[in-house]
Amino acid sequence: MTTGEGKRNRKKCLAYVAAFIVFQTAIIMVFALTVMKIKSPKVRFGAVSVDNFSSGDTNSSPSLSMRLITQFTVKNTNFGHFKYDNSTVTIFYGGMPVADALIPNGRARARQTKKLDITLDISSDRLSGTGNTNLANDINSGVLTLTSQAKLSGKVHLMKVIKKKKSGEMSCTIQINLFTRVGESKCK
Question: What sections of the protein cross the membrane (predicted)?
Answer without folding.
Answer: 14-35
